[in-house]
Each structure stands twice: as C-alpha cells, then as structure tokens.
Amino acid sequence: MDDHKLKVFCSVAETKSFSKASKAMYLTQPAISLQIRSLEEDLGTKLFSRSNKSVSLTETGEILYRHAKKILSYYGAIEKEINEATGLVKGKLMIGASTTLATYYLPNVIVDFKKSYPDILIDFERGNTRKIIDSLLHTRIDLGLVEGVVNDHRLEVEKMDSDELLLIVNSDHPWADRQDISIHEIIDQPYIMREEGSGTRQVVESTLARAGIHAEQLNIAMLLGSTEAIKTAVENGLGISIISGWAVQKEVKFGVLRALSFKDIRFKRDFSLVYQKKSFRTQPAEKFIELLNRTPMAYRI
Known about the structure:
Layout: H1 4-15, H2 18-25, H3 29-43, E1 48-50, E2 55-57, H4 59-86, E3 91-98, H5 99-104, H6 106-116, E4 120-127, H7 129-137, E5 143-147, E6 155-170, E7 190-194, H8 199-210, E8 219-224, H9 227-235, E9 241-244, H10 249-253, E10 257-260, E11 267-276, H11 283-294
Parallel strand pairs: 3-4, 3-5, 7-8
Antiparallel strand pairs: 1-2, 5-11, 6-9, 6-10, 6-11
Helix pairs in contact: 1-2, 1-3, 1-4, 2-3
C-alpha cells in the first residue's frame, strides 16, 4: 500500500524540520520537499508554514496530520492481520537502544531475531538515554530500550529487567583486592564520569544522593562520552568509575580491570522498553518484544 507520502508528511510535522525528516526517513532533503510539494498539489492547499528556523503545520496541515496518523495506523493493522492470516512475518522494525544495551546486549538478540524472521528489516540506532527518548518522540524509531528512569507522559514504559553497576579499578589499584569498600571512600579518588544525558550517570548520581553524597563532592577527573573510553581511562590509572558489569566481562576475565561492589550500597538500575502510548504496534515490534521477554538482560560478574 502506498502510504509513503503520508509517512513523509508526518515525519516533517513531528520533527518540524525538512532536514531532520530527511535523516529520519533516510531520504535526501530534496526528495522530502518533492513529496510534500506533491501532496500539497494533490490537496490544493499549503500544509506547512515555513520560516528560517523551522516549519509548522497550517490549519489544513493540522487536519491532514490528525487523519494521517489514523490512516497509517489502519494500514499497519491491515498489514498485520494479512501477515498473520498468511503466516508471513515481514516489514521493518526501527529500534533504538542506550549505549550499554546497544553494545553488550542487543547484538546477540538481533542475531537470534533475524534467524527466526529473516524477512524483517531492522534499523538500529544507538545513543544515550536522552537521545533514544528524543527519537521515540519524533517517531524515528518504533521501540526504545533504555536504562534509568523515564518520566514522560507521552511514553509507555515497561520494566524489562534490572542490572547492577559495579565499581571498576585497574589491577594495580590499592583497592583491587578489597572486599570492604565503603561508598564514602570514593570522594577522595579521581572519578571518571559519563556525559550529561547518560542513563548510567543518572543512576550513579541518584544512588549517591541516597547515600548522602552529591555529585559535586566527587573529584571528577574527566567527563567521557562512552563506556569504552571510561574503561581505557581506568585501565591507564587515570581514575575509578562505576559502570555496568556487562561492559567489563572481557577485561575482568583477563585481569585488566577489577569489578567490585560496595559494602554499604548497591547501584541498581532498571532496563526498560519504551514506546509511544498512542502508536500502533506492528507485528515485527510484537515479535521482537516476545523475544526480549525470553532473553534476560541482567548480567552478574
């Protein structure tokens, strides 16, 4: 069914930008403009008001957007029922995942999923939790897998599993063989922190607050934008950090890093499945969620 023009139109309406819609739809900006112009000619009305910074829906654009979302939902329901009737599972699934899940958990899940459903095309985006939430709200992805707390009334949040963050030090650190480390001892150590927007950072800061420690009290040695960068810094003796056990499996196995727990507090976080409340859930999305529910997320060293 030819619903392409409506999808392009909705993408521009939701991102309020032709350039952002082109990225979301994997089309060139001229192609986006051509589809909108064709739709406007078909309907005999302007759908967007354009300015230097953004675009906004006109009155007739608002009418079309309201109905277009319903039409696309109906198309999705029709395709789903036909696929179920014929026994076929096909289509496209757009997934987003925060960094830890995208790097250490999802690759194996996607491999298993493709073995069962080879006709489903998977589009995979990775980024910190804030970026994944933004992609969901702008319908660039169907499902998001994130860590930490999500508070947005437009999104449905389903807890999938929990994980423990662990203290990591290099093998030469004085704490490498200790089993009695108190959380308050980290104040005197050079600490390597994730960037703003990271789900890991969110969990670390909220857990520290429960222990009576504010983030400003930490001796921040550096801010880094990825878990891999943090591991490298810790390996080279530039500080300590708190990250997921998923991320240090190999380094712990080969004795490069040590992963430790605190005696007086645990750094727990939830892994959650997130999607728009009002969005239609496609058959590929439902099949993927079924697999997620059968595949544990938590990792323990």
